[in-house]
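stage 2 :: seqdesign
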């Protein structure tokens, strides 16, 4: 592995490597990478880049013959070489092809960008063809797990590849995961429609129909730790109108399908027959089945008015953990069903998590299981404070030690480093740990959208802006109903400079949330600040939602811009105190008396320099010197 100090040095190395034995002419390399410079200066820049490469690689690796640059293939091994040979273990031999060629590299030179685009397309096709060959061979040999791996690699490289999806469906079916066949098909169909505006090909539809011709196997998700079980019983309706019964049954089915995508709960369906024959009604039937929670409800109709009453009940004690009532008007039954199911799916996992955390807090630390440690760590992470995340890290490390295969534990452990980065105090080792645990989580459960959006934050920590944005858009394509994930997607888009997209997403989430926890309001306050809605910032970033020095910085700036001089000065004082605490926790002695000393570490968060300037200007207006 070679680490180079400039992207142009890396780009030059890639061009030489791609040219293989024929090599690349010096004048071509200079014109491609320094196209805006005069010819003499371009040649000088090329010599400097070659000097950098030779210092990093050693003498004798890059050869020059008559003005042509080549690699000494006796001295180096290229990962792309595995595409042209018979690999002993092809899946392991293609470890780095989950992303695009030179992912994260961007050189602002049009000739290079043209070369990079063409080369990326060539290698993407080559890798996909090789992986498809590997997957089909594995499937023919009865190794469904390897076929799934190959298919997932293809789809990570190209989310719209129908041949990769066909292999994926066949592999899951061969592994007995019929429900996963339907889930992956539905996800792929949604991505095609949302991103490209096209429908699934007829061949893929026919394949799915054939694979599902046998009876569905239970939904299988790779979770080794014990997670809460939720039984969803059919919603009652007192109406005899067929359309009303259709609505009640369809609502329960939609809730089950969407909740099944959450890795932090296990969902069980209880049919109408089981409920009708339970001796004491639905709750008794759930207790007998050993479920931790039961979700049930009733639907009443009066003309076009619909009233849904819903309860989340503890399985063993019968205690109502959450209840709500929704009143709506029905103009289209399917639209109403979608709206209500989204509302319920947005509320239930959060309520269960609260209950698990409440119970876990009453147990001795030594008695906590990996899942409980994870939930407690997650709640400390949600404080978005340095102190809270240090405590969270200790719990999450225990969780991972108890169960190394609990994907969300790796994700939240990674997040403890991500949050530390938000305060500008994360060293290189911490950044590597953030990315390692994020990638480990994604490998353990590639279908968890929270893990997918978090991987975007880990890439952001590494300074890979383009890769982070690509990853967050992948997560958005999956996060249909998981509104906590949508919130964090919005925040990363904000830091990436996509203000309008972030605002639209956060407003959508706000309309669908059953509660507005402090973390959401903390995100919303920052979005409002960039929109210039400073009165709303002051109202939103207040009390618990301030959370940390970041919230205080935005609040002070908005107060100053509104002419609230005394209030801005007070908030600025609180910001300084918070930053001093941050610095002390990080083992630093720097003061927080100037904008640069207090806010300089925040620069790493904002892709656009003017976004950091916006925060700094607010502090200056509040009275902080440069």
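stage 2 :: out
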């Amino acid at each position: 592995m070679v680490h180079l100090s400039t992207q142009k040095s890396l780009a030059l190395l890639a061009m030489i490597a791609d040219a293989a034995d024929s090599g690349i002419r010096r004048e071509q390399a200079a014109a491609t990478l320094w196209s805006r410079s005069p010819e003499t200066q371009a040649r000088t820049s090329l010599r400097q880049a070659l000097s950098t490469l030779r210092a990093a690689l050693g003498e004798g690796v890059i050869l020059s013959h008559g003005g042509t640059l080549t690699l000494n293939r006796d001295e180096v091994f290229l990962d792309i070489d595995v595409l042209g040979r018979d690999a002993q273990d092809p899946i392991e031999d293609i470890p780095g092809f989950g992303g695009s060629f030179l992912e994260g590299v961007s050189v602002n030179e049009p000739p290079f960008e043209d070369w990079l685009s063409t080369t990326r397309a060539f290698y993407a096709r080559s890798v996909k063809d090789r992986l498809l060959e590997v997957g089909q061979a594995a499937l023919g040999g009865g190794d469904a797990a390897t076929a799934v791996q190959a298919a997932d690699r293809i789809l990570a490289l190209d989310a719209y590849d129908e041949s990769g999806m066909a292999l994926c469906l066949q592999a899951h079916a061969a592994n007995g995961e019929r429900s996963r066949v339907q889930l992956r098909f539905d996800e792929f169909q949604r991505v095609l429609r949302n991103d490209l505006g096209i429908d699934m090909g007829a061949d893929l539809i026919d394949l799915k129909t054939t694979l599902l011709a046998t009876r569905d196997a239970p939904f299988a998700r790779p979770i080794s730790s014990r997670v809460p079980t939720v039984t969803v019983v059919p919603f009652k309706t007192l109406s005899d109108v067929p359309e009303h019964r259709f609505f009640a049954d369809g609502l329960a089915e939609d809730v089950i399908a969407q909740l099944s995508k959450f890795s932090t709960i296990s969902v069980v369906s209880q049919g109408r027959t089981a409920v009708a024959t339970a001796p004491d009604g639905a709750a008794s039937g759930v207790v007998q089945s050993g479920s931790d929670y039961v979700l049930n409800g009733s639907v009443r109709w009066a003309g076009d008015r619909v009233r849904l009453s819903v309860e989340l009940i503890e399985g063993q004690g019968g205690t109502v953990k959450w209840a709500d009532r929704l009143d709506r008007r029905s103009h289209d039954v399917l639209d109403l069903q979608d709206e209500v199911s989204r509302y319920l799916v947005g509320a239930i996992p959060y309520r269960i998590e609260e209950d698990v955390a409440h119970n876990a807090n009453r147990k001795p630390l030594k008695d906590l299981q990996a899942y409980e440690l994870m939930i407690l760590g997650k709640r400390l992470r949600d404080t978005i404070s340095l102190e809270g995340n240090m405590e969270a890290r200790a719990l999450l490390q225990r969780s991972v030690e108890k169960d190394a295969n609990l994907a969300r534990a790796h994700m939240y452990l990674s997040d403890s480093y991500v949050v530390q980065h938000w305060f500008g105090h994360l060293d290189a080792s911490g950044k590597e740990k953030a990315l390692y645990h994020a990638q480990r989580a994604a490998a353990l459960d590639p279908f968890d959208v929270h893990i997918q959006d978090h991987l975007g934050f880990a890439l952001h920590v590494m300074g890979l802006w383009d890769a982070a944005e690509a990853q967050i858009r992948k997560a958005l394509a999956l996060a249909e109903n998981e509104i906590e994930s949508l919130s964090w997607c919005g925040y990363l888009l904000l830091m990436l400079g996509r203000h309008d997209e972030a605002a639209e997403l956060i407003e959508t989430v706000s309309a669908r949330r059953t509660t507005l926890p402090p973390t959401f309001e903390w995100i919303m306050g920052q979005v409002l600040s960039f929109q210039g809605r400073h009165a709303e910032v002051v109202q939103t970033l207040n009390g618990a939602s301030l959370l940390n020095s970041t919230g205080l910085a935005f609040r002070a700036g908005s107060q100053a811009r509104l002419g609230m001089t005394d209030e801005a000065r007070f908030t600025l004082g609180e910001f300084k105190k918070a930053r001093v605490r941050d610095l002390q926790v990080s083992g630093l002695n720097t003061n927080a008396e100037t904008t640069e000393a207090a806010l300089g570490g925040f620069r790493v968060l904002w892709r656009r320099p003017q976004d950091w300037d916006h925060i700094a200007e607010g502090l200056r207006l509040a009275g902080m010197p440069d």
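stage 3 :: structure notes
- The CA atoms of residues 415 and 434 lie 7 Å apart.
- The radius of gyration is 27 Å.
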